[in-house]
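Lay summary. Proteins are chains of building blocks that fold into shapes, and those shapes determine what they do. In this project we predict the shape from the chain. Here is one chain we studied, written as its sequence of building blocks.
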Amino acid sequence: MTDYKQQIRGPFEVKLTPQNDGSGVGDPAISRMAIDKHFSGELSAASLGQMLSFRSELPGSAGYVAMELVRGMLGGREGSFVLQHSGTMQRGEASLDLHVVPDSGTGELMGLSGVMRIIIEEGQHFYEFDYSLPEAG
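And here is the predicted shape, written in a compact code that computers can read:
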């Protein structure tokens, strides 16, 4: 089995919904959001996930973590995988790591590994996805 390296780019739409369940669990300074995303292009998929975030009193400083389960087609192959997010912003300077969780691929996406970048241009969201996937056998 030989791995190959791909790089793709495409648009996506995202909807974030606050999850205030009134349970009193956790500190209200930490917000929780539901993620609902739709990817287009070589990654034709939908994802659902959860995000936890904190915004400091100093404008431009914040942090978030998230997990999202992506289901659909990647390069013509069907399955699912999980993306793990870790992002910080320090006085307007952003840093974001988005990785495929190891061994989270299912179906024809078993063995998937990769990193994704999120780009926002003129209010539009785009992904850039560098990934490796075992050749179909």
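What the prediction tells us: The two ends are 8 Å apart (CA to CA).
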